[in-house]
Amino acid sequence: xxxxxxxxxxxxxxxxxxxxxxxxxxxxxxxxxxxxxxxxxxxxxxxxxxxxxxxxxxxxxxxxxxxxxxxxxxxxxxxxxxxxxxxxx
Length: 89
Prior knowledge:
Blueprint: H1 3-22, H2 25-35, H3 39-45, H4 49-60, H5 63-73, H6 77-87
Helix pairs in contact: 1-4, 1-5, 1-6, 4-6
């Protein structure tokens, strides 16, 4: 797989994980509180690899959320972490 394809796959997985994160009000509030982001920030920066990687780091910081997200998305937690590492390159 080419690097561009890998980044697109990582971005798609990160966007899915972000959607999962925002689907729960408490988790979404925690994301915004801990990162200092606003809903407008999220909307305007959705395509930025750095923002998507930071969002995955948020999940990594609370392993139960990372595992639950992975289960709901039908991927492994390691795949989500790999997506973050790909986005950080």
